[in-house]
From TrEMBL:
Domain D-isomer specific 2-hydroxyacid dehydrogenase NAD-binding: 110-287
Record-stated family: Belongs to the D-isomer specific 2-hydroxyacid dehydrogenase family.
Name assigned to this protein: 2-hydroxyacid dehydrogenase
The keyword Oxidoreductase belongs to this UniProt entry's keyword annotation: yes
PROSITE patterns in the cross-refs: D_2_HYDROXYACID_DH_1 (PS00065)
InterPro entries registered for this protein in UniProt: D-isomer_2-hydroxyacid_DH, D-isomer_2_OHA_DH_cat_dom, D-isomer_DH_CS1, D-isomer_DH_NAD-bd, NAD(P)-bd_dom_sf
Keywords for the protein's UniProt record, in alphabetical order: NAD, Oxidoreductase
Organism whose genome encodes this protein: Luteibacter yeojuensis
Domain of life: Bacteria
Length: 331
């Protein structure tokens, strides 16, 4: 009989069909999050799983999934996976890097532009029927062209964001754990600076860091005070990198001009103090949600599972496996 695959949410039936050729697939009919007990029950007989960013796979869940050999994550960030626990249990894991870089970079600019030019606030005001006439000095926002773009976290998404700055004739500063090669810096038009310089000089700061315990509250009260009062802050990375409560306070106090957030600590909950603040654009974790890219992400997740079980063009070599040693040990 075929191995069993559990798919934690509905998506593109034609892509799931590729999995059905080789697996008995159980696919959840609706989008929801699962408790650890529910995950354990669903993975009890599974050989493979495709999970979303709200599905937390850790040692406790794995203890109930003795047959599990591979978990494909529908996202590039994988802080929902305990990779050490997966590796220790001999379970391979993959994410969806690269296919979403350009789409996420587009969205980072969309949010940053919306915050700088007050698009969300102005639209809410118009929809509320308040547009009775225009004030020449109404709705003044910050320019983006020619201003200094700051990028904290300079992986492939950060680089895609940086490349877009050329059309805005906007200089780019970045900070990262490790400095990029000079050739890549040149190609992205980005200059490396320390974190303090980045905070002090960026007119529009964009966060693109992976979430790790060490990155928690990388931007807190002190960092926000170090920014320009005219600056904007955009987070398209992960909730928890910004101290949301400190951000709401900084926005209320005018320590920075505006913010744009696609991710939140404890999402889908949003800190109530942020909801009260007009000068912040809020979106429900959709930076990679273009029609093409969500299909590419789903397809890549399926490719990884198929390859882990010896099928398809990458048989035996899941293209974006995070812990390749697991498969080497198994063979
Ligand atoms: C989205 O947040 C992702 O990690 O792909
Ligand atoms: C603005 O709409 C202008 O015409 O200057």
């Amino acid at each position: 009989s075929k191995p069993k695959a559990w798919v934690s949410r509905p998506f593109f039936p034609d892509i799931v069909d590729r999995l059905r050729e080789h697996f008995d697939v159980v696919q959840e009919p609706e989008e929801r999050s699962f408790t650890p007990d529910e995950l354990a029950a669903r993975l009890k007989d599974a050989d493979a799983a495709i999970v979303g960013l709200v599905d937390r796979i850790d040692a406790g869940v794995l203890a109930h999934a003795p047959g599990l050999r591979f978990v494909a994550n529908l996202g590039v960030g994988y802080n929902n996976l305990d990779l050490d626990a997966l590796t220790a249990a001999g379970v391979g894991a993959s994410n969806t890097p690269d296919v979403l870089n350009e789409t996420v970079a587009d969205y980072a600019w969309a949010l940053m532009l919306a915050a700088a030019r007050r698009v969300g606030e102005a639209e809410r005001w118009l929809r509320a029927g308040q547009w009775q006439g225009s004030r020449f000095e109404g709705w003044l926002g910050a320019d983006v062209h020619g201003k200094t773009i700051g990028i904290l976290g300079m992986g492939r998404i950060g680089q895609a964001i940086a490349r877009r700055a050329a059309g805005f004739r906007a200089p780019v500063l970045y900070h990262n754990r490790s400095r990029l090669d000079a050739a890549i810096e040149r190609e992205c038009g980005a200059r490396y600076v320390d974190k303090a310089t980045l905070l002090a000089q960026a007119d529009h700061l964009i966060l693109v860091l992976p979430f790790t315990p060490a990155n928690r509250h990388t931007i807190g009260a002190g960092e926000l005070k170090a920014m320009k009062p005219t600056a904007t802050l955009t987070n398209i990375a992960r909730g928890g990198i910004v101290d949301d409560e400190a951000l709401a306070r900084a926005l209320a106090a005018g320590e920075i001009a505006a913010a744009a957030l696609d991710v939140f600590e404890g999402e889908p909950q949003v800190h109530p103090a942020l909801l009260e603040q007009g000068n912040v654009v809020l979106s429900p974790h959709i930076a990679s949600a273009s029609r093409d890219t969500r299909r590419d992400m789903a397809s890549l997740a399926v490719d990884n599972v198929l390859a882990a079980f010896g099928h398809g063009p990458c048989a035996g070599r899941p293209p974006t496996i995070l812990n390749p040693g697991v498969l080497a040990d198994a063979s």
